[in-house]
């Protein structure tokens, strides 16, 4: 019984590392296509990032990470702060 439980725990832990993560970031300060391109360029330069989408109307940046990779909240906040934007919320989903 204990062996089966251990195998299950290890399997779940390893499979979680394989999945990509979708990070939704609410931002303030975005207004135009130039903002959109700048944010996209900044996030695409990160080795963890697979895709990035900027929704100017809803002021949301959606980042999908590569399998087994993630971006820390502090890094996301710093990247956007360095680009002139403020983060109001970060949500994650696998």
Give the tags.
94 residues; alpha+beta; Alpha-Beta Plaits; 4-stranded antiparallel sheet; 3 helices; 4 strands; globular
Describe, in plain words, how this protein is organized in 3D.
The structure is a single chain. With 94 residues, the chain is of the alpha+beta class. It has a single domain, classed as Alpha-Beta Plaits. 41% of the residues lie in helices and 30% in strands. The chain has 3 helices and 4 strands. It has helices at 2-18, 33-44, 73-82; strands spanning 22-28, 49-55, 60-65, 86-93. Strands 2-3-1-4 form a 4-stranded antiparallel beta sheet, with helices on one face. The chain is globular. The model has no long low-confidence stretch (mean pLDDT 87).
Outline the secondary-structure elements.
Blueprint lengths: L1 H17 L3 E7 L4 H12 L4 E7 L4 E6 L7 H10 L3 E8 L1
Antiparallel strand pairs: 1-3, 1-4, 2-3
> Mean pLDDT score, rounded?
87
Largest sheet, spatial ordering of strands: 2-3-1-4
Radius of gyration: 16 Å
Q: pLDDT below 50 for ≥5 consecutive residues: which ranges?
A: none
Q: Give a short account of the largest sheet.
A: 4 strands, antiparallel
What is the helical fraction, as a range of percent?
A: 40-55%
**How much of the residues is beta strand, in percent?**
25-35%
Q: What is the CATH architecture annotation?
A: 2-Layer Sandwich
Could you tell me the CATH topology label: Alpha-Beta Plaits
- Counting structural domains, the number is 1
The CA-CA distance between the termini, in Å, is: 29 Å
